[in-house]
Structures are given as structure tokens and as C-alpha cells.
Design goal:
Layout: H1 30-42, E1 45-49, H2 56-66, E2 71-75, H3 83-98, H4 107-110, H5 120-132, E3 138-143, H6 156-163, E4 168-174, H7 183-186, E5 192-194, H8 196-199, H9 203-212, H10 221-228, H11 232-244, H12 263-270, H13 276-285, E6 290-291, H14 293-300, H15 305-314, E7 319-325, E8 328-333, H16 335-348, H17 350-364, H18 369-378, H19 382-399, H20 402-410, H21 420-432, H22 436-447, H23 455-468, E9 482-484, E10 487-489, H24 499-514, H25 519-532, H26 535-556, H27 559-575, H28 585-597, H29 601-614, H30 621-636, H31 639-652, H32 663-676, H33 680-687, H34 697-709, H35 713-721, H36 730-746, H37 750-767, H38 771-775, H39 777-790, H40 795-806, H41 815-819, H42 822-831, H43 837-844, H44 848-862, H45 867-876
Parallel strand pairs: 1-4, 1-5, 2-3, 3-4
Antiparallel strand pairs: 6-8, 7-8, 9-10
Helix pairs in contact: 1-2, 9-10, 12-16, 13-15, 14-15, 16-17, 17-18, 18-19, 19-24, 20-21, 21-22, 21-23, 24-25, 24-26, 25-26, 26-27, 26-28, 27-28, 28-29, 28-30, 29-30, 30-31, 30-32, 31-32, 32-33, 32-34, 34-35, 34-36, 36-37, 39-40, 42-44, 43-44, 44-45
């Protein structure tokens, strides 16, 4: 046995067994260090996995230097695929750390021969046996495990992962899927994991890093965070490029860069480090940010494109799998990574890049108009864009606004922008926007160019012209409505009309609802639809129209009618077996919106979840459901559910069937999430780029309150003033009036404050709009009492509001609840029963030891000494 004093030998270069030196200006990340400490305390094996550029080595090095436990470090390289070399490195790293421990139990480790004997099993057993002599835990961090190749699982690292004693805590760090089988850990003794989502910079970290690199407080950290999705190397590259260009005047001081110089990094550090065939596939497949297996095969040009897509997913190559669409999973690339790959391919083979954009355009032609147009223009194939728009523009109106459709037409280059069908589409857009003069001029230009159309496109143009010809200058359709026996009729009939005319009328009516206009034109259109439909179709149209009317009423603030119409539509749909079909999504969404503003959060969540599931491919029901789900979960203070609704919101960001801009509402929802998590400064930084209004009515209403609550009253006031002519909705007007009342009270204008409160309750009482009062309950508590004394025409409503306050309506839960992990909350919920630890373990498919570990953690966080104490404390704090 070697003498301890002789053990100063280091296996190979010293840098391999020492954590990397912190780079100049690198950001300290205590958030991650705490998470890793918790994982290492609770699990024998912890995995840190993320693509290149997420700062894994830097953060692990910081953690090792600060860790209370003795830590051994080993960095792998491409030569560590050899079992003997890897064993040599592992033993040397552990011996280096053990030599610093003046504790009994390390002699056996120090006496080991780091050379792998001919009998590998015997060498591995000797190491395991030596580790069993340790009296204190030791952590072995192995960095860049992906470089060890597929043999990792069968070598010493796989043996340690499977069989090492509890005294060894193993932390493996790498870029993608490790060959070590991890599922038995996840569902057995447990596995600590930190992945790209955790390693990405938060908004606060981006702002902190920007400040460290010389940016002042005016810097727009929110935009940089969104553009990079928190990818640390991209944030660093952006800030460095700004610093280098500091002497160049910027158009907007403090703005984030629009171009991130990462193409060379992606080429050298990511693509050049993987198999050439996989790298070539990535360059092809990133033609589109979103794709399914079929498009992957078409872009690859060979049948195994789908297999390569799965390989990218397994290896953590900047791609995520999302919900099913049209029978297949959809995959989403990290948008910034995909943009760099497109830039690389454009440099290497511009003709191939153009051809692949044309392939993507053909794929999306009948699936996604926005994506088809974008891909066609990048592939220099504007004709493809014209074909998609001409065939699907009426469907597009079903889920989008007129401005988006018109913008797509205007993006077409000459001479395609003068195509007769495109001109006719623009004419309809102008007419629906109320610009009759421009609509007539565009129609004349379209008709003067019909000679360029083939027979099919000419017939299609004529049918749409016939459909929209009745539109007058103000965009309203005069259908000569009369009343007969109490029922409205019109003089439009189906004579000489094709069956598509009925569908066209119904789609146009839906478009009117989606544009949140008054229901007169839409109602007349639906009545005209009934006149052209056969009896079998009529009931289906009526139910769909009822669902759309419910949504229109909910958006207009008529919550009572919305709930009644939505319920009626769902009941009729249920009789036909429709309640799980997409066409019922508007009814579920209408009821969800009504329940939210009525402050029935549980019912709202149920309805919105159903609407989102059914309407995921149909704008705006999908994203609007996601927005309202975030509002509901923020209101309930349930951060466990909020994590799910936040993820659902992110899945809609910038993408969906017929994608449309929801940037303002999306930004406000992100700010609400930050606020609910206690990050008020982050919430303010998130919404400040939106300015002081000029967005949709709902967005500006939420923005005004956010700005007021976070202290920017001047911007809040300007935002409220911008809504002067857009306060028709009951809940919009109620929210704004309460925001104005609180600001007036704060400035000492008591008369204005009470006038605004009286107006708020005037608008709120008929529709039972309670959520705005509940959201501001603490600031309104005394003010409502004063208002009752001041005098009101709505005494019963005011009394009911004050009664809700004294009864202790749902409040944000204690911060300690948010500190419990998801698994700890699951265990806590089972602890309320008489189940034993073994029975809880069986129910959760984890080991008894893991359950006990979670119980100890729960006791520590709640300051309890027993199950009874923990449950009592949890009940007091609103956790259970």
C-alpha cells in the first residue's frame, strides 16, 4: 500500500482534473449552484445536459470551488473512448481529491493502481471496494461525457452510475443523450437533472450580464432575452458585438442587436463536432423553424430524414418535440440556432438553400399560409405564395385579422403583387377595414387584369367577387333584412350560387366575429348562409354560429349572453357528439372568458383548457385560451399550474396554423408570470418596450394596470387615455376605471377617485364583473368602505364586494409553497392520507428512500418535525 505522502501524482495533464478557470466577466449563477447542490444532496446521480454554449463547464467549475463536499473533477476529450484511458482518468481524479482529505477511509483509494488491468472487471471491483471505505461523501464531476462515445455505459463511468456506493455522488455533464440508461434512475431511486431550460439565462441574468459588460439601465434586456431565448453564448455574443460597436451611433440607444454573430460558432463548435451526415441534415432541416417528419424527409431527400430528426432530439441539438398536428409530432428548432444554420448554408450553397425553401413552401402551401409565403419568397418562388393565398385566403380570415392578410399580399414582389386574385384579396381587406374608395380602385385594377388568369382561377375570382360585391363603402353588407312573424329574413337566395357560396358567407361571418365588430353584419351573413344551405347543413351552421356569437359577446363584454349562448351551443353540440371537436372551441373559450371575469377561476381553468386543446390549430382560440389560462393561474397564485400554462403560451409564440402576431398580449402575459413569481422589476422591464398603449384593447388595459402597479403612473395614465374610445366592453371599462380610481386616490383627488369607482361598479354589476376588484382587493379595501359612506347607487353590489373580502377569497399563496419542488408537492399531497412511505413510493413509482428524502426536505422547508406538523403548517400557509 502506498504511503499517503507519496501520492502527488497526477494522471496526465493537470487541466483534466481541475475545474476550468472562470473567464473574465463570466456571470455568477447562484440559482443554478443552489439547484445542483439540492440535486446532489438528494440523488446519487445527477445529469447536466444542454447543447453547446449554455455555460455548463463554467457553472460546474464555480460550484465545485464552492461546494461543501470534497469534489473530484475530470474533463473528457475525444481520446477517452478508450476504456483504459478513461479508468486512468477517473481513478486519478478521485485520488487527487481524496489526497486532500485527512479522514480515515481514503487509504484504500490512494493505494489503487490507476492503470486498468487486463481483467477489467477486477479493476472495477477494486475501485468500488475502495469507495465503500469512504466515511464521508465525495462528488465526482465528469465534464463533456458526450466525448466518451457510445462505450461510456459499458466502461467505468457506467459501472459507477449503476453500482457505486452512496458515498460517491456522480455528476455527469454533456451536450446530449448519454449512452447510460437513465430511465431506471428516473423511476427508481431518482435522478437529478439540469437541462437547457434551467441553464438558459433568465431575463434578470441577461440584464445583470449586460450591466457587467457596460450597458446602462436603458438597455433593452427583454428584447435580447426573447431573441436569444436565454442561450448564454448568444447573449454574450450580442453584448460583445454591441460593445465593439459602441463608437457607432445606434438608431435606438439601449436597443438589443438585430443580428447575432454566431454562425462561425455554430459551424465550429456544434456542426463540426458531430457526424458529417447529421450536420448536413441539420443544415437542410433548419430551413423551417417548425417541421414534422414528412417535411424532414422531403428536406433531406432520403427516407431516413425522420430517423435523423429523432437523432437530433436525442442528442439535444437545439430542438424540441411539441404537440401533435395533423396526425404527426411537430418539432421546433431553437429559432436563433436555426437562423445561424440557414446563414451557414446560404454561404456554402446558396442554390441548395433556395431549393430547400421552395420544398418547404410546397409542403406548407395548403397547411400554413404565412409559412408558405415566407418560404416561397426566400426561395425566390413568389408564384407559390400567390397560389397559396388565392386558394386559402378566405380560410385565413377565419383565424386572423385583415391587416395580417393584407400585409402578406403587400410583401409580394412585382409583378406578383399585381396578380388579379391578389388585388381582389386586397380589395376585400380594404372594404372590411372601411376604406371603400381604395377597395373599389383595387377591384377595378383586378378586373382589368383577369386576362392573365387560367379558367380555374378566373372562376374562383368571379365567385369571390360575387360574394363580396354587396359590400358598400363602409364595409357593411345590406341584405335587405325584413321581419316576418318575428323572424329576420333576407332576399339572398341560393339560386345560381355554388355550394361554396354558403361556406363563404359563414366564413366571412366568422371573420367578422374574430375582428370583434358589432354583430349586425355577421348576423345577417349567418342568416344568408341559412338561406343557401340545405336543412341537414342548417343545424350545424346554427350551432357553429351560436358558438361564434358566444365568443363575440364575451369579447364585447356581454358576459351573461356569452355564457348563455356558449352553454346552449355546447348542449346542442353534445347531442350531436361534437363537444370534443374543434368547432366547439369558441364556445368553451367564451365560457372561460366569462368565468374568469366573474372570478370563478376553477370553472374558467376547466373551460379554457378544453378550448385550448380543441382550438390549438385555429387562431385566435388557441393563443387567446393560452393568454387567459396564464391570467387565471396568476390570479390563483398557483405556480405549479402556471408553469404548465406558461409552457403552453410559449408553444404559441410566433407559430401556429396561420400564425399571427400576438406580441403585445404575449409580452404582457410573460410580465404577469414574472409578477406572480415575485419579480416585479422583471415584470416592469418586460412591458416597458410596449410603450404606453397603441395595442389591442385588452392588451392596453392589462398594460395600464401593470404599469400602475409597478410604479410608472405617468405611462399608466397615458395608456388609459389612449383607450378613451375603446371602453365599450364591460370588463375593459371596469378595469380601467379602477386603475384610474386608485391613481386618483394616490394623488389626493378623492372626488375623481369616487367618481371612477362609481362608474366601475355601474359597468360591473350587470355582468357581475368581479375579477378587477379581486385583483386590486388590498388597495380597494378601505376605498370601498369610504365609497359606501360617500354614497352610491349600487349599495348591494358594494356590500357584496366587501363581504367577499372579509370571507378571505383566494389569495396568492405563501412563497414557501413555491419553493417546494413538484415532486415534493406530490409527496405532500399523499402525506395528507394515512398511507405509509412504502405505499406512497408504490403510488409514485419511486423508492421508499426517495420518499423519505422528500419528506425530510419538506420538513426542513416548512420548519416541521413530523408529518402532522408539516400538514398543519402547510394548511396555515395555503399549500394544501
Amino acid at each position: 500500500m502506498r504511503d499517503r505522502l507519496e501520492v502527488e501524482w497526477v494522471p496526465g495533464p493537470q487541466f483534466k482534473i481541475r475545474p476550468p478557470v472562470r473567464g473574465l466577466g463570466a456571470l455568477e449563477r447562484p440559482r443554478l449552484e443552489s439547484a445542483l447542490s439540492a440535486a446532489a444532496d438528494s440523488h446519487r446521480l445527477t445529469l447536466v445536459a444542454a447543447p453547446a454554449g449554455y455555460g455548463k463547464s463554467t457553472f460546474l467549475g464555480d460550484w465545485v470551488r464552492k461546494c461543501d463536499l470534497p469534489c473530484a473533477w475530470l474533463s473528457l476529450d475525444r481520446f477517452d473512448t478508450q476504456p483504459a484511458r478513461l479508468f486512468h482518468g477517473v481513478v486519478g481524479a478521485i485520488q487527487s481529491a481524496a489526497s486532500k482529505l485527512p479522514l480515515p477511509g481514503t487509504d484504500a483509494l490512494l493505494a489503487l493502481d490507476p492503470s486498468l488491468a487486463h481483467d477489467r472487471a477486477a479493476s472495477y471491483d477494486l475501485l468500488l471496494g475502495a469507495l465503500e471505505h469512504l466515511t464521508e461523501p465525495i462528488v465526482l464531476v465528469i465534464d463533456d461525457v458526450h466525448l466518451a462515445g457510445p462505450g461510456l455505459a459499458n466502461g467505468i463511468v457506467g459501472v459507477l452510475a449503476a453500482s457505486a456506493p452512496p458515498s460517491l455522488r456522480l455528476v455527469l455533464s454533456g451536450r446530449g443523450h448519454t449512452s447510460i440508461q437513465l430511465e431506471r434512475f428516473r423511476y427508481g431511486e431518482g435522478l437529478g437533472e439540469l437541462r437547457a431550460a434551467e441553464l438558459a439565462f433568465t431575463l434578470e441574468e441577461v440584464a445583470q450580464f449586460a450591466s457587467a459588460l457596460g450597458q446602462d439601465q436603458t438597455f433593452d434586456a427583454g428584447s435580447l432575452w426573447k431573441m436569444t431565448a436565454g442561450w448564454p453564448v448568444a447573449v454574450h455574443a450580442s453584448l460583445v458585438s454591441l460593445a465593439q460597436a459602441r463608437n457607432v451611433p445606434l438608431a435606438t440607444p439601449g436597443s438589443a442587436p438585430t443580428h447575432v454573430p454566431l454562425a462561425d460558432y455554430v459551424a465550429e463548435e456544434i456542426l463540426d463536432q458531430i457526424e458529417p451526415s447529421l450536420a448536413e441534415f441539420i443544415l437542410r432541416a433548419t430551413t423551417s423553424d417548425w417541421l414534422g417528419r414528412r417535411l424532414a424527409v422531403e428536406l433531406e431527400g432520403r427516407p431516413h430524414g425522420g430517423v435523423l430528426l429523432e437523432e437530433c432530439l436525442r442528442n439535444g441539438l437545439f430542438i424540441e418535440e411539441h404537440e401533435y398536428r395533423a396526425g404527426e409530432s411537430m418539432f421546433r428548432w431553437h429559432s436563433l440556432f436555426a437562423a445561424q444554420c440557414r446563414r451557414i448554408l446560404q454561404r456554402r450553397d446558396p442554390l441548395l438553400a433556395e431549393r430547400l425553401h421552395r420544398v418547404a413552401a410546397r409542403y406548407y402551401q395548403d397547411v400554413d399560409v404565412v409559412e408558405c409565403v415566407a418560404q416561397a419568397l426566400q426561395g425566390r418562388a413568389p408564384r407559390q405564395a400567390v397560389i397559396s393565398l388565392g386558394a386559402h385566403w378566405l380560410e385565413f380570415l377565419l383565424g386572423n385579422d385583415v391587416q395580417t392578410l393584407e400585409r402578406l399580399c403587400l410583401d409580394l414582389p412585382a409583378p406578383w403583387g399585381e396578380d388579379p386574385e391578389i388585388l381582389m384579396i386586397r380589395s376585400v381587406c380594404r372594404a372590411l377595414s372601411g376604406d371603400g374608395t381604395a377597395a373599389a380602385e383595387l377591384t377595378d385594377r383586378a378586373l382589368s387584369r383577369t386576362f392573365a388568369l387560367d379558367a380555374i382561377r378566373r372562376r374562383r375570382l368571379d365567385s369571390y367577387r360575387a360574394l363580396y360585391e354587396p359590400l358598400p363603402a363602409d364595409g357593411r353588407l345590406d341584405l335587405h333584412t325584413e321581419t316576418v312573424d318575428g323572424r329576420s329574413t333576407t332576399d339572398i337566395s341560393g339560386d345560381g350560387r355554388s355550394s361554396s357560396f354558403s361556406t363563404g358567407l359563414f366564413l366571412l361571418a366568422q371573420a367578422e366575429f374574430r375582428l370583434h365588430r358589432t354583430g349586425e353584419l355577421a348576423t345577417a351573413l349567418l342568416q344568408a348562409t341559412g338561406a343557401t344551405a340545405n336543412p341537414e347543413q342548417l343545424e350545424a351552421v346554427e350551432i357553429c354560429a351560436q358558438a361564434e356569437l358566444a365568443l363575440a359577446h364575451s369579447i364585447a363584454g356581454d358576459l351573461v349572453s356569452a355564457d348563455e349562448l356558449g352553454t346552449a351551443a355546447l348542449e346542442r353540440g353534445e347531442a350531436l357528439g361534437w363537444n370534443s371537436r374543434q368547432r366547439m372551441a369558441p364556445a368553451w373559450l367564451a365560457r372561460g372568458i366569462a368565468c374568469y371575469w366573474n372570478d370563478d377561476l376553477k370553472a374558467a381553468r376547466t373551460c379554457l383548457t378544453k378550448a385550448q386543446r380543441l382550438g390549438s390549430e385555429l387562431f385566435p382560440t388557441g393563443p387567446l385560451s393560452a393568454i387567459y389560462r396564464v391570467l387565471v393561474d396568476c390570479a390563483a397564485g398557483d405556480l405549479a399550474r402556471l408553469a404548465d400554462s406558461s409552457a403552453a403560451l410559449e408553444s404559441f409564440h410566433g407559430r401556429g396554423r396561420y400564425a399571427v402576431s400576438w406580441n403585445a398580449l404575449d409580452t404582457i402575459a410573460v410580465a404577469k408570470i414574472a409578477e406572480a413569481r415575485g419579480d416585479r422589476d422583471g415584470a416592469l422591464r418586460t412591458v416597458q418596450p410596449l410603450g404606453a398603449g397603441g395595442h389591442g384593447a385588452l392588451a392596453d388595459t392589462l398594460l395600464a394596470e401593470l404599469l400602475r402597479r409597478e410604479g410608472d403612473t405617468a405611462a399608466s395614465q397615458r395608456c388609459a387615455e389612449s383607450l378613451a374610445d375603446r371602453r365599450g366592453s364591460s370588463y375593459i371599462d371596469t378595469c380601467l376605471s379602477l386603475t384610474e380610481a386608485i391613481m386618483a386616490h394616490g394623488s389626493g383627488d378623492a372626488a375623481a377617485a369616487h367618481e371612477r369607482i362609481e362608474h366601475a361598479v355601474l359597468r360591473a354589476e350587470p355582468e357581475t364583473v368581479l375579477r378587477p376588484f379581486a385583483e386590486r382587493r388590498e388597495e380597494l379595501a378601505d376605498l370601498l368602505v369610504e365609497h359606501a359612506v360617500w354614497g352610491t347607487a349600487h349599495e348591494s353590489f358594494i356590500a357584496a364586494l366587501m363581504a367577499r373580502e372579509t370571507q378571505g377569497e383566494t389569495r396568492l399563496r405563501a412563497q414557501s409553497y413555491w419553493n417546494l419542488t413538484e415532486r415534493e408537492r406530490e409527496v405532500l399531497s399523499y402525506m395528507r392520507s394515512i398511507m405509509t412511505a412504502a405505499e406512497i413510493a408504490e403510488a409514485l413509482y419511486i423508492s421508499v428512500n426517495t420518499v423519505k428524502t422528500h419528506e425530510r426536505s419538506i420538513y426542513r422547508k416548512l420548519g416541521a418535525v413530523s408529518r402532522r406538523d408539516a400538514l398543519k403548517t402547510a394548511a396555515k400557509r395555503g399549500i394544501v
